[in-house]
Amino acid sequence: MEPEFWIERWQRNEIGFHQDRVNVYLEQFWSALVPDPHCPVFVPLCGKSQDMTWLRVRGHAVVGVELSRLAVESFFAELQQVPTRRKVDGFELFESPGYTIYCGDYFALKSQHLAHVCATYDRASLVALPPSLRQRYAQHMAQLLVPGVNALLIALDYPAAQMQGPPFSVNDAEVHALHGEYFAIRSLRVRETLNDNPRFKDRGLTRLDERVYALHRTTAVATSQGAMP
Questions:
Q1: What is the enclosing helix (H) or strand (E) of 204?
Q2: How would you classify the pairing of strands 150-157 and 119-122?
Q3: Domain spans, the chain
Q4: C-alpha to C-alpha distance for 227 and 85, rounded to whole angstroms
């Protein structure tokens, strides 16, 4: 899946993955997982998610990364903010008070871009990626984050043969296989939601589970430049 796929989805306004309200699991679990409101939060593949605004209202500085310039521009336009823009390490960096969004490729991020981050929120990133990219995504996430970072992860689990993603199915075993080497993983909630999502039923699904996890970054991970601090 090439970057142009997502850029074109935004250009055609094919953004069924965008939620018009704050995610219920973010509201339910975040404060217990990340009680410090001054903790900067990383939101990968952030789009124009309202979840970022919810985090900011609660005091968190938000750091996002997003391929689509249109998505980033829409986010700030809906906030009625005019961000500053500058080029940084191959990214177009959008900044306004409390928000820092790197417009560019997630895989081009370096640990220094997230050095101050102490939490991560992943609602639509892992499930946006096909199996061929998920291992690389998880490994890069481990390289970006220092030990001690907490993360809230929301995954979708459905019979993969019944629907072609995105969003893709990521079951419990795969979550542990992808993240278990460098994160302690705790299941917070499993909820069957097919009846709440008729568009997926229309696409042929017979089961759809939302799986919510708390992750805690534990050990350092080796990189080509040496071990992470």
A1: none
A2: parallel
A3: 3-14+21-227
A4: 32
Helices 3-11 & 69-79, crossing angle to 10 degrees?
A: 40
DSSP strands (E only) in the chain: 41-44, 62-66, 84-88, 91-96, 99-103, 119-122, 150-157, 183-192, 209-217, 222-223, 226-227
Q: Containing H/E element for 5? A: helix 3-11
What pairs with residue 91 in β-bridges? 88
- Give the tens place of pLDDT for each residue, 81-94: 999 999 999 999 99
Cα 195–Cα 197–Cα 200 angle in degrees, nearest 5: 110
Rounded CA-CA distance 99/83 in Å is: 9
The full 3-state SS of 102-162, as one line of letters, equals EECCHHHCCHHHHCCCCEEEECCCHHHCCHHHHHHHHHHHHHHCCCCCEEEEEEEECCHHH
Domain 3-14+21-227: give its CATH architecture: 3-Layer(aba) Sandwich (3.40)
47/11 Cα distance (integer angstroms): 12
In 3D, which of 151, 88, 92, 146 has the Cα closest to residue 116? 146
pLDDT tens digits for 171-223?
A: 999 999 999 999 999 999 999 999 998 989 999 999 999 999 999 999 866 45
